[in-house]
Write a structure and sequence with these properties.
heterodimer; A: alpha/beta; 7-stranded mixed sheet; 6-stranded mixed sheet; 18 strands; B: mainly alpha; globular; Serine/threonine-protein phosphatase 2A activator (chain B); cytoplasm (chain B)
């Protein structure tokens, strides 16, 4: 067993690794992250996660519900640290997994991955308390500077393969299964379907849906055997046909942009994000700041954010941004939502929140978002990859027909707490000496 | 010891026979460096004086017969004067207002939008409420300048600042501070009867502040208010601070008027500080003690192991030197973590009762680098590797704010390897004990020089903490 595997094992048990190992880990992580672009490309299938905030036991619950690394391909949208009691254990475990399985886990930066924010919101204090010095905090902050600012998920399937038994009394189907393709599904932590919705199946001459039904299903969530029947997806097959306009594109599902906060008035294309010099502390304003701080809101255009950083942006902004960039969805985190996830603006943006019973008191559930792999056309990657300009010109015709990916939300609650022993009291703050 | 033989200073009242100019309070703390000016202002001196005056009054008293008189919540030994009862009436009106504005049952993110309505109604009725429950001669105290405002303008500002933010749907220690200032303003305006030291002070704490805290808890629960600027588990408490001060005083050793305030020890039958981690002790003590009532509220709203969601209170519960020690620490901590923190005090408005003018007796804080949570604060260059200093981005629209705004001119010099706050309390055993300013017992003045605690101590920034959305610490 390598040192790294040992560290992973230790951190999974919620035990910290020695400072020297943290230093080495952070060094390796930086070497890895420096090679990543500001916007990382990630192929579906992928499981997208929101804020963690040091809720280590809930992160373990997330892995139980969503599958382990490397069986499941994960994308974490930042805010690993601050406020919770176990920011160190949580972040160091994710970082170990990143170094161990770099292609199976993607970490992007949240507004809390910052020196200034962590000194105000707890991570700094936690480092001092647990390591007795600020060294580990410094190592971690150096890693923060190298985290990517966003990710583009390519090749997601437009349709979900049904999961299996549903809780019939709570299932709300807008259209019966036979008439539509499964668009959204919500599962509880036991793997039971609590909600599903369908989009009308659009028929056209090239409809291949029948064929797709018999193509082998793909399991997007290996490692979740305890959650019931294997989940299937990636059997859409309807491919370009359901656009209903004879488009020649070989996949109709637009790309998904993942970013911690949201959009920026200074960023009208995904390519503009790629131009940012990201290897720095999060600035107080500007594009990089906005991507990590902004929030969608029921307004038109842009608004001032009550947070004092970033902006509020309305549905028109999202629609236009998605349209111009060939995106079908913006996935973001950054805001507590009681139901764990919240779609806004006709499904053009979704907030994913992965810290259940946030701060021990909010009573919210958490969610993760699974996007399946589009196996039509041999799994060819979608044409819409978020590259600026590609949706102009020849592709213009398609822009209105980009189909959103099928979304499977797994909702979960806070981990049971009765097994955690009481630690010895630590020396008190200087005020009390 | 103050010049009149008491071991505590009393907030001076305005002389009713002399003229005074009231000033409509306005914001003065615009950036974090203004906090230094606040800490040598007359307003700061007055707030600390009033806080310590109330604190000292809550210490149990040695009676002439050799027994000790404690001051639990609900005690018959504290009588409420007419002004105290009027303030209770005011609080109960605000409580009724909750019934009038029930929480919205529709979908919500977290904070309940109906609180905005509650706040709007409060603002509409504020003048009428003050007039109903405060004497007209107090509200209408005129300025010497006939064009100037009356006392009401100042009182109303602190009153309205006491109930959380209707815009952000949050509540924190800044709002609590505003209520303390509201009471201190009434004190200054001779709104409380003259009496022997301690009588009115205890009535203020038990008769007004305690029900205020209960009302706030009710607001927090009803409208799921978020903690203003939350530190999560790393704060003392998500919303409140002063109950920990007055509550620890309630359990500290008894004193005579001339005694120095004890810095350790406890009242003989005081509950063990370790009780805060035990649900049964908390439910027993919360009825009579402000400290335990605050902890009890944490038990009400938080699910999970106490040591995990409240590690700071848990650690403090291990203190062996008694409630006197805890009280002294709480006062120091309040000074450093509430009064010295830009995000907390930035909204505090200054007029004539709480004056931005420099206190001539205050000693200037050292001009040490302080890089927390204010607009001037800037990121730090990390060790080696890429320079993390802000550079103008390739993206024309993206500029580091300090690169172009001229704010860089105000950035103090700092080392190239470490955050200044890290250096200040960095590695090694804590050694700042002696560096902590001794503002814990005496307010700034000739006897007790004030130094900005944050300039030297840099202890953790705890209160409040919790679940609100993160606000930028530099947010105005």
């Amino acid at each position: 067993m390598s040192d790294l595997d040992r560290a992973i094992e230790q951190l999974r048990a919620c035990r910290l690794i020695p400072e020297s190992q943290v230093r080495e880990l952070c060094y390796k992580a930086r070497e890895l992250l420096i090679e990543e672009g500001n916007v990382v490309s990630v192929d579906a299938p992928v499981t997208i996660c929101g804020d963690i905030h040091g809720q280590f036991h809930d992160l373990m619950e997330l892995f139980r519900v969503g599958g382990d690394v490397p069986d499941t391909n994960y994308l974490f949208m930042g805010d690993f640290v601050d406020r919770g009691f176990y920011s160190l254990e949580s972040f160091l475990l994710l970082l170990c997994l990143k170094v161990r399985y770099p292609d199976r886990i993607t970490l992007i930066r949240g507004n809390h991955e910052s020196r200034q924010i962590t000194t105000v919101y707890g991570f700094y204090d936690e480092c001092i308390r647990k390591y007795g010095s600020a060294n580990v905090w410094r190592y971690c902050c150096e890693v923060f500077d190298y985290l990517a600012l966003g990710a583009i998920v390519l090749g997601a399937s437009s349709e979900l393969e049904p999961t299996g038994p549903s809780l019939s009394d709570t299932t709300q189907s807008t259209i019966s299964f036979d008439d539509g393709e499964l668009k959204t599904e919500v599962l509880n932590s036991h793997g039971e379907v609590t909600m599903s919705s369908y989009r009308p199946r659009m028929r056209s001459s090239s409809d291949t849906s029948t064929d797709s039904r018999i193509s082998p299903p793909r399991d997007i969530s290996a490692g979740t055997s305890q959650t019931g029947p294997p989940l299937r997806t990636g059997a859409p097959g309807t491919g370009a046909s359901s656009d209903g306009n004879g488009s020649a594109s070989n996949s109709r599902t637009g790309a998904v942009l993942c970013v911690h906060g949201g959009l920026s008035p200074l960023i009208d294309s995904v390519d503009k994000i790629r131009l940012i010099d990201r290897k720095q502390e999060v600035p107080h304003e500007g594009a990089m700041c906005d991507l990590l701080w902004s929030d969608p809101d029921e307004i038109e255009g842009w608004g001032l954010s009550p947070r004092g950083a970033g902006f509020l942006f309305g549905g028109d902004i999202v629609k236009q941004f998605n349209h111009l960039n060939g995106l079908s969805l913006v996935a973001r985190a950054h805001q507590l939502v009681m139901e764990g996830y919240k779609e806004m603006f006709d499904g053009g943006i979704v907030t994913v929140w992965s810290a259940p019973n946030y701060c021990y008191r909010c009573g919210n559930v958490a969610a993760i978002l699974e996007l399946g792999e589009d196996t039509s056309n041999g799994g060819t990657i979608a044409r819409s990859n978020g590259e600026y300009g590609r949706s102009n010109g020849a592709m213009g015709q398609d822009m209105t027909t980009v189909v959103s990916p099928g979304r499977r939300y797994r909702v979960f609650e806070a981990a049971a707490q009765d097994t955690r022993g009481m630690p010895a009291k630590k020396p008190v703050a200087d005020y009390f000496l | 010891m103050s010049s009149d033989g008491r071991s505590v200073r009393i907030l001076p009242k305005l002389d009713p026979s002399s003229t005074h100019n009231f000033i409509a309070p306005c914001k003065k703390i615009h950036e974090s460096q203004d906090v230094a000016a606040f800490l040598v202002s007359q307003a700061y001196t007055d707030i600390m004086t009033f806080l310590l005056q109330l604190n000292r009054s809550m210490f149990p008293a040695k009676l002439p017969d050799g027994t000790e008189q404690a001051w639990p919540i609900g005690t018959d030994a504290v009588q409420f004067s007419a002004p105290i009862r009027q303030l209770q009436g005011l609080l109960s009106k605000l409580e009724d207002l909750i019934q009038e504005v029930p929480p919205n049952t529709g979908p919500r993110r977290f904070g309940n939008i109906s609180f905005r309505k509650w706040h709007e109604v409060l603002e509409e009725r504020a003048s009428g409420l003050l007039r109903e429950f405060l004497p007209a001669e107090l509200l209408d105290a005129p300025s010497a300048d006939p064009e100037g405002p009356t006392a009401e303008a100042e009182l109303k500002a602190y009153f309205l600042g006491s109930w959380g933010s209707g815009q952000r749907l949050d509540y924190g220690t800044g709002h609590e501070l505003s209520f303390l200032a509201f009471l201190a303003a009434i004190w200054k305006l001779n709104g409380f009867p003259k009496s022997e030291y301690g009588v009115e002070e205890r009535a203020i704490v038990l008769g007004v502040i305690e029900p205020y805290l209960e009302l706030i808890r009710s607001l927090i629960k009803t409208y799921t208010l978020e903690p203003a600027g939350s530190h999560g588990v790393w704060g003392l408490d998500d919303n409140s601070f002063i109950p920990y001060i007055f509550g620890s005083a309630q359990l500290a050793p008894a004193v005579n008027e001339a005694d120095l305030t004890p810095e350790e020890g406890s009242l003989p039958d005081a509950p063990d500080p370790g009780g805060v981690a035990k649900a049964n002790a908390v439910s027993r003590e919360r009825r009579t003690n402000l400290y335990f009532s605050a902890v009890g509220f944490i038990y009400d709203v938080k699910k999970g192991p106490f040591w995990e969601h409240s590690p700071m209170l848990y650690d403090i519960s291990g203190i062996k030197a008694g409630w006197g020690k805890i009280n002294k620490g709480m006062v120091k901590m309040y000074n450093a973590e509430v009064l010295s923190k830009f995000p907390v005090v930035q909204h505090f408005p200054f007029g004539s009762l709480f004056s931005w003018d420099r206190d001539p007796n205050a000693i200037a804080p050292p001009t040490t680098v302080h890089a927390t949570s204010g607009p001037q604060a800037r990121p730090v260059v990390p060790d080696g590797g890429f320079s993390a200093t802000a550079r103008p981005s390739i993206d024309a629209g993206t500029k580091a704010p300090w690169a172009t705004s001229g704010e860089g001119m105000r950035v103090p010099p700092m080392g190239s390897t470490a955050a200044p706050w890290a250096a200040a309390r960095g590695s090694g055993p804590p050694v700042q004990t002696s560096a902590l300013p001794d503002t814990s017992r005496m307010p700034p003045g000739p006897m007790a020089p004030t130094r900005a605690p944050w300039a030297t101590s840099q202890a953790p920034p705890p209160p409040p903490g919790g679940d609100g959305p993160t606000k930028a610490p530099w947010a105005k």
